[in-house]
Amino acid sequence: MNRTNLTIAVHGVRRRAIMIRGIVMVAMLGPFVTACVNVTAPSDPIVIELNVNIKQEVLYRLVASAEENIESNPEIF
Amino acid sequence: MPRHTLARRLAGLALPAFALLAMAQPAGAMQREPAYAEARANGTVGERIDGYLGFTGAPPAGLRAVIDDINIRRKASYADRARAAGVTIEEFAFAQGCILIARTSPGEKYQAPGGSWQTRGSGAPQLDPRCPAVG
What radius of gyration do chain B's Cα atoms show? Predict the structure, then answer.
């Protein structure tokens, strides 16, 4: 009776160890699996139009000063 | 009659009179010199995209100097404000142009994003897509 209980306990520990080993192996294999995905570079270069975006952001910032300019110098506008 | 009462009464009369005078004409129109005001009204000059005034056709004799003078004074004001904001004169002038085109009155000329001269209608003008939403 005592012996069977011990055997079950030993089996439980071993099973858990196998499971952990399996998880570790999968985790280690992970990067290699993803590395198998082929990435091809696009034929034409990616152009980020920074000039346009920066300018728009700048314009928003100048609205208050430009409106004030009209009020200060009405004769030239 | 004490003097301060008389002064107060005069001030009471003068203030409403001044307020009426100020309301009679739209802001800006009152301060423009007649030659410029007329050129704007008849479409000889219009607001350019770059924040300066431009001739919509051949410049009439005598008007060129008037408009050049205004543009030089505009540039001076842009330079001061561009420096304060840490941007280029062109960037400030462009932002000013957005507002000036947005504020044109119906019948006045302005430059569309493509560069063509347009007459301002009752609706919104054609603005560069980079222009901030202004009234």
Answer: 19
